[in-house]
């Protein structure tokens, strides 16, 4: 079995990391917590119980938040606020925000989850115009 290696970073570039191993699942979560967490319609997270996370730089800038009474956790760069991988030592689960990776992952999401909470504006988006860059550019 070939081990995959993925590089990732935060928006400001201060935090860099590497993931070695395979992702077992990729979910787009529409729960209210993930909407608040991302400021968007859903979170796009990769999950693994076997991959290893190595911080290459900026580990001292990584902060974590756990919502009391829930399983909802997030890690982020304290400088730019970018979402970063979060490893749960108790369960062994590694959660990696897909957008934090700098390398292509080669897999597609397994499912939209918690779709009962889907944002009311997150439907029939195929009809919304697609622009190659910023409006007016």
Task: Kindly describe this structure.
- The chain is mostly beta strands and 137 residues long.
- It has a domain at 5-26 and 43-103: Metal Binding Protein, Guanine Nucleotide Exchange Factor, Chain A (Beta Complex), CATH 2.170.150.
- It contains one helix and eleven strands; from the N terminus they run βββαββββββββ.
- Strands 9-10-4-3-11 form a five-stranded mixed sheet. It has a three-stranded antiparallel sheet with strand order 1-2-5, with no helix packed on it.
- Strand 1 (5-9) and strand 2 form a beta hairpin.
- The protein starts with a strand and ends in a 24-residue tail after the last strand.
- 22% of the residues are buried.
- The model has no long low-confidence stretch (mean pLDDT 94).
- CATH architecture label of the domain at 5-26 and 43-103: Beta Complex
Q: What characteristic shape results from the CA principal axes?
A: globular
Sheet with most strands: 5 strands, mixed
Given the structure, what is the number of helices? 1
List the secondary-structure elements in sequence, H or E: EEEHEEEEEEEE
Q: Could you name the ranges where pLDDT drops below 50 across 5 or more consecutive residues?
A: none
- Which structural category fits the helices and strands? mainly beta
